[in-house]
Amino acid sequence: MLSKQGEQSKNGGSNPFAVILGSSPEIVVACNLAKRAARGDSTVLIIGETGVGKSVFAKAIHQASRRRGGPFVTVNCAAIPETLIESEFFGYVDGAFTGASRKGKPGKFELANGGTVFLDEIGDMTLTLQAKVLRVLQELVVERLGDTHEIPVDVRVIAATNKDLAKLMESGKFREDLYYRLNVISINIPPLRDRREDIPEFIEWFLRSLNKVCNTSVTCVHPAVIEAFIRYPWPGNLRELENAVEHALNLTDGDELRLEHIPPHIWQHAIENADKNDAACAKDLDDSLAKYERDLIIAALKTTGNNRSKAARLLNISRSGLYKKLHKYDIPRDGTAKRLTESNP
């Protein structure tokens, strides 16, 4: 996702924050906070839903800071098995546990020495591990598993979460002292549904980056596609948007991205949630969506030999839902209706 943007300026470039797209007020505030955070070494807590680009912000802060020449080490606190999490964080010495390397192994904090460690999904960290991370923040030392020798570390910590840490504190699942250690600078990244005006810019970016991946040469997007994308709530945020664009590119056969190329649930959502008060734009979109929906139904009926149960499954709708749409678009029983461009429903 946005990490692809980071590849463009992995050495920081002249402006590490150029990888953060969008001009909505919420993202401008978040970006300005990140720029201020890059000036010093204070811990940063980045808050936002899955897929909003928290890691992109963390990397930009690192690349704009005095630590840019040091390592940037990412730790996904939710992805490491509980049996390995301490050895991953703090390392281990020979004989620390069965199967341990004879040479031992440095942990993530040691590997990040002189740079930044990014603790992603910190809300999933166990209370035991929270206590040990707190000690690192307070004393800037680590002890490898199986050893009592203290190793000094010079690291900056940036943490991120998609959870409400305040609620986790209230329920006793997150340490209050660690929360206040991490929450020196707090950056809230809004979900995509709250910054819909930025969606066209992201579509353009993903087109440029994914045309190579999909071996396509799409240069334009039909306005109805943009409107459908703007209406959709994007529960998976930018990651879901990228996947939707990639899905569409794989179905194109020309230089334009059209409604029939995008995932059906997105244009179906646009139909079902059309704002009837949004006069001209809504009418244009509804007409385009209706045309493609009707054409897709006819194509599904032809593909399945007019078997309506199979057609409904192919369209990912219920059989009763299909019957309603057949009636809505005046599609005859044999599914051989003329295309909407040739006759009105």
Topology:
Blueprint: H1 3-8, H2 25-37, E1 44-47, H3 54-64, E2 72-76, H4 85-90, E3 91-92, E4 105-106, H5 108-111, E5 116-120, H6 127-139, E6 141-143, E7 150-152, E8 156-161, H7 165-170, H8 176-182, E9 185-188, H9 199-214, E10 220-221, H10 223-231, H11 237-251, E11 256-257, H12 264-272, H13 279-303, H14 308-315, H15 319-328
Helix pairs in contact: 2-3, 9-11, 10-12, 10-13, 12-13, 13-14, 14-15
Descriptive labels:
2 domains; 345 residues; single chain; 11% strand; alpha/beta; 46% helix; Rossmann fold; Helicase, Ruva Protein, domain 3; 15 helices; disordered C terminus; two-stranded antiparallel ribbon; five-stranded parallel sheet
Can you characterise this structure?
By secondary structure, this protein is an alpha/beta fold. It has two domains: 188 residues, 3-Layer(aba) Sandwich (Rossmann fold), CATH 3.40.50; 134 residues, Helicase, Ruva Protein, domain 3 (Orthogonal Bundle), CATH 1.10.8. Helices cover 46% and strands 11% of the residues. The protein has 15 helices and eleven strands. A hairpin with a 6-residue loop joins strand 6 and strand 7. The longest helix has 25 residues.
Summed up, what is this model?
The protein is α/β, with parallel strands linked by helices. The protein folds into two domains: 3-190, Rossmann fold (3-Layer(aba) Sandwich), CATH 3.40.50.300; 195-328, Helicase, Ruva Protein, domain 3 (Orthogonal Bundle), CATH 1.10.8.60. The protein has 15 helices and eleven strands.
